[in-house]
Design goal:
There is one protein chain. With 388 residues, the chain is of the alpha+beta class. It has three domains: 204 residues, Lambda Exonuclease, Chain A, CATH 3.90.320; 57 residues; 46 residues, no CATH class. Helices cover 47% and strands 12% of the residues. It has a five-stranded mixed beta sheet.
């Protein structure tokens, strides 16, 4: 994941949004980006990865900066492990580059611009490696959600375009390889384009859509990918109308719905639920923190649970009254596996305790055909279980 393009209306990181739905860029322009802990964690991991790369390839003394990063509450042994894997991956790419030419060049955290295709367009490329005839742009993504493909990815194409424009005057670049590296998912995805094809895409696809987005024109085009990170997603009228199409189904008892109707509803439900959640969060914040009044609603004190103010004092009083420590304290409990991996580091924890960990067979669940897991023969499985 590249550093946030905080000053670029048409930045690479939001390209999937504004290229698919051009008016969305201006619609969300004045809405504050409140961020999230996940984003903060990703930014910190990215910084740690950058330090490791600069130590390796620029002989930078990172001890002070690394010590500072390690004081961040979001830092963990697991994060360092993943970022070392990222640094190792970049080193592998450099070894590959050295096999192609004697003197490959690596650039770390370089700002690239593409204003001739998108007004005031710029971004920060994580890693650029240049060899004879080829340039590779590597983008680190720290998220642990789903693998992101580099194929046809507008963000990666823009990074590739910006990097080419930055260095084409100095190097003979014929091909651009764009790679997304996701260490927490063991996912590597690459896509290669000739410079001719990349420039043609920039001229025919990027440039006209960027012009519309810059001017706040074009048609609204709600959809799962483009709405996911749009700051105006909660209040966008076009998206609301798009989501409310789901309500056009006649929600009669299930026997009156055929399989295709149920499948259509199932396909739309995840995005519909995400929209409802965003709308609720927006309304909650607006009412509680900004004094906005919604007809038919009011702000009240929420429910709360009782809690101790001084556990040591309570324990002392109970022990004095004759209760034993064993009776009033919970027994020790190990951290969960995910928390333990974050504390110890996934690789090291696996080495120390992997033989004591099992992964039970998951319960059957219904998913779209696009899910990469193999399909179960549930009827055969049921018969097998019954036979045993």
């Amino acid at each position: 994941m590249a550093m946030p393009d905080v000053h670029a209306l048409l930045g690479p990181s939001s390209a999937a949004m504004w290229m698919a739905c051009p008016p969305s860029a201006r619609l969300g322009e004045k809405i504050e980006d409140t961020g999230s802990e996940y984003a903060a964690e990703g930014t910190l991991a990215h910084h740690v990865g950058e330090l490791l790369l600069r130590e390796k390839w620029e002989d930078m003394d990172i001890s002070e900066d690394m010590a500072s990063a390690q004081t961040d509450p979001l830092y963990s042994a697991s994060m360092l492990e993943y970022m070392k894997a990222y640094a190792d991956f970049v080193e592998e790419r450099m070894a590959e580059a050295k096999a192609q030419c004697s003197d490959p060049h690596i650039f770390i955290e370089q700002q690239v611009a593409f204003a001739e295709y998108a007004p005031e367009g710029f971004g920060t490329s994580d890693v650029v490696i240049i060899t004879d005839g080829q340039m590779e742009v590597v983008d680190l993504k720290y998220g642990s959600g789903i693998p992101v493909s580099a194929e046809g990815n507008p963000q990666m194409r823009i990074y590739g375009l910006g990097a080419y424009l930055a260095w084409c005057w100095a190097y003979d670049i014929q091909r651009v390889r764009m790679t997304i590296y996701q260490p927490r998912l063991d996912s590597i995805s690459s896509d290669t384009m000739t410079v001719t094809d990349l420039l043609e895409w920039a001229e025919k696809e990027l440039k006209p859509k960027a012009k519309l987005a810059w001017e706040g024109k074009g048609e609204f085009n709600p959809g799962e990918k483009q709405c996911k990170w749009c700051k105006a997603a909660a209040t966008c009228r076009a998206r609301a109308e798009y989501q409310m199409e789901l309500a056009k189904h006649d929600f009669a008892p299930p026997p009156t719905l055929d399989e295709s109707e149920i499948a259509d509803i199932l396909t739309r439900l995840p995005e519909f639920k995400a929209w409802v959640k965003q709308l609720e969060e927006y309304a909650q914040d607006a009412a509680v923190n900004h004094g906005v009044h919604f007809p038919g609603y009011k702000v009240v004190e929420g429910r709360s649970n009782r809690k101790y103010t001084n556990e040591d004092a309570i324990a002392d009083q109970l022990i004095r009254a004759g209760f034993s420590s064993a009776a009033i304290y919970k027994p020790k409990e190990l951290l969960g596996i995910t928390a333990m991996e974050k504390l110890v580091g996934k690789k090291k924890f696996g080495e120390l305790a992997g033989k004591y960990i099992i992964k039970p067979e998951g319960a059957p669940t219904l998913v779209p055909l696009s899910d990469k897991r193999p399909e179960l023969n549930t009827a055969a499985k049921a018969a097998e279980d019954f036979a045993t």
